[in-house]
């Protein structure tokens, strides 16, 4: 059909040209911005098939005089717009309104080499790009984001790494992957985020709750994982990475392939697999610390300026072994472990993943659609479904030996819709709506009482964000969000626990059924939260700028804080939630000074966070069971303050040498009882010298020194335990942090030419070069074993 | 206008969608592995009434402490034949966990630790590798006195470590499944 039309057109053109050669036609028009109808100056308009061209003036107008042809095509382009082809028939009309996709934000999205690709202009945001992420291909998200000052991690061994942003973690850190909020039982410290780092092209991290679009409860911050971007051109490209490392005899590969069409269609597939065996400290093997991770993701869609859609699916399966020696029976075992230099069980190297272990399968399905309205804005609607299935295997006896001790399936559905009104680029508004439903199912076939009960959760959120530019130098963001959460749970309590907690007085009306030793109860809670975020950025000139932020955020307690009820073997403690826990409220102010040139960068970020009703776990006493005695850790609420500063300095000595320092310092205090907060990262400073020579096959080599100081501010939770065998009390020192440590890491990479056009990037690195023995305060297994020793890695990256 | 319509449709549909949740009650879990009760029955070899040392913790890992009882005092310079029994009494009828311990004898061992030199204990059973299990033992009292006997069941002990097979728990490592201390009078 179109071919026919084309031919007819051509034919008519031909007739026109040949018959009427009266060269006094006029072709004129105006070039405007698609969004807000502002005229575009300096657009280049060319008549195809001729060498005639024109450039639009400051009002967007252009004119061609003395044209001979009636029918022709004109191409319109502008330095910051996608080019557009217009079909012209001067017999129909002589004045054309041509709209180009000219927009600052879109420009950044399209521009690959752009230095900043930030989600916000006023928040404390840092972007980690693919060249840095590639280094962490064999590790995890939590390891990669420690590149950013102020970010640390709380670990359970080496493979379970949870991000900590300015001292806050778990449910206080919100993770977005491909615009889906990750719902993966993030409440537990031993639950690492289920993200395949290899599926990420870049990661943005926003400190504080200043990204209300994603949620109002991110007291710590938001981590945004972006998959690879596509461009509207006919192309097929991909990347393959191979990794190997000596410690743990680990290996991994990752392949991504993307096909794009100029018409806007794209399709992408990614697959990754990695496996490691037992890691080794300088002195011994860490028996049962291997892991096996397999990931697969695919997306396809259409990206046009006016509309588009995407369908996305990802699958991730992680099998993680947990240090065998960390599974203990009672307080006496814990005392023995703390006092022993080495773990109690050390075997030869193995790839085996035995109990205690975790197996988690996380699947995400997402579909979204967007539509742009001329001179109005963009509407985006999205649905996502996530299935998180977690198994935890314990050391068990008898028929249950191979049966999971925990089997939780968390399913989440989310509908969301955002409307961005950007017709005036000086005043951009975004409003959004979210509705979510979540169902948690705890399988009773484990034969172990449920740690987390069956529950259903409803979420509803509505937000509005405004971005204003009162002057060229000043940008202001203001956001308000309201969230409603409802949790309906059905939980079994041991009757003795129910009475001990005092619930028979406060919650007797929620009992559904009495099974004698157990009670089935139906707790239901509603939470209403209002969050506010304001930010401003001011350009001081000469590459200097300052940012100020204020955020009010509220977080409803999670399932663990409300309901957890049981014995954790890895910590030899009984953890108890509390049905009376209220939401927590944070008021955070922060400021940033930024100086950024080619030669030097200085970023200083400071924050002060006051949290009312801060929820945390604290030891409150000892309970005795037939196994012996255990400390009891209860979720409590206090008023807390956290404050600190993060520093990043980079200086280019000359074209070949760069030095860099990243440091972070913070303190956390429980102001209700004037005590230090637990699990606060200690002072850390990293120095780096990098040598680069582009002429030597893009060679670079660097040495990095990482110094972590001992945490001197910690709460004393030590307690006396009765040891019956010796009929004596001994002090159980669970509080004293390990000493300071210093690590040296080296790395070098270069391009290896394999053909005229193609390169393979080769990277070689040694972590913990000096094979230092050390323990990290924020590793929950620090009572049992050292951190891993020297590790040689090699990586090949092939882009095609 | 179109936008508002679209938004409202989405909003309403999501409300409908979230209001239809299932409402089945979950079933209770009766833990099969829980050990609630441990009994040591000591029968004098020369005949007489058996003495029973018992610890019972019916709520398992719950807040209530175990109830520890000793039926009577022990006689001086007497040899007792001892038998251990472990039960899960959260089930009816109570499940005998002693059988499981016996089946996995290689991975289990009872330890008996008296204080004040009131008695000595010797194992009288072995696992398939010739190491003791401790379900059967003899206890020999000494002269009059009082003290305690701590009885522990350890999972995956290092039975070949020094002293472990003769009943010294010091090098046993492993995990403690049961740990109970009984006050004993020998008279």
**In percent, how much strand structure appears in the residues of chain B?**
35-45%
Mean pLDDT of chain A: 87
Which segments of chain B are poorly predicted (pLDDT under 50) over 5 or more consecutive residues? none
| CATH topology (fold) name of the largest domain in chain A | Maltoporin, Chain A
Structural class of chain B: mainly beta
List the helices and strands and how they pair.
The complex is a heterodimer of chains A (800) and B (187).
Chain A (H helix, E strand, L loop, with lengths): L1 H18 L5 E9 L10 E4 L5 E3 L5 E7 L3 E8 L2 E9 L5 E6 L3 H7 L13 E5 L1 H4 L7 H4 L6 E6 L3 E6 L2 E2 L3 E5 L2 E2 L20 E6 L13 E6 L8 E11 L4 E11 L4 E12 L14 E13 L3 E15 L9 H9 L17 E17 L3 E17 L12 E16 L5 E16 L11 E15 L5 E21 H6 L2 H4 L4 E4 L3 E4 L2 E18 L2 E12 L3 H5 L1 E4 L4 E4 L7 E13 L3 E26 L2 E25 L4 E14 L4 E2 L7 E10 L5 E10 L10 E5 L4 E5 L8 E13 L5 E9 L23 E9 L1
Parallel strand pairs in A: 1-7, 12-15, 32-35
Antiparallel strand pairs in A: 1-4, 2-3, 2-5, 5-6, 8-14, 9-10, 10-11, 12-13, 14-15, 16-17, 16-44, 17-18, 18-19, 19-20, 20-21, 21-22, 22-23, 23-24, 24-25, 25-26, 26-28, 26-29, 27-28, 29-30, 30-33, 31-32, 33-34, 34-35, 35-36, 36-37, 36-38, 38-39, 39-42, 40-41, 42-43, 43-44
Chain B lengths: L1 H18 L17 E8 L6 E6 L10 E4 L8 E10 L6 E2 L1 H6 L4 E7 L4 E5 L12 E6 L3 E11 L19 E12 L1
Antiparallel strand pairs in B: 1-2, 1-4, 2-3, 4-5, 4-8, 6-9, 7-8, 9-10
Report what the structure shows.
- The complex is a heterodimer of chains A (800) and B (187).
- By secondary structure, chain A is mainly beta.
- Chain A has a 22-stranded antiparallel beta barrel.
- Chain A is globular, with a radius of gyration of 30 Å.
- The longest helix of chain B is centred in the N-terminal third of the chain and has 18 residues, at 2-19.
- The model of chain B has no long low-confidence stretch (mean pLDDT 85).
- Classes of the chains: A mainly beta (800), B mainly beta (187).
- At the A-B interface, helix 5, strand 23, strand 24, strand 25 and strand 26 of A face helix 1, strand 9 and strand 10 of B.
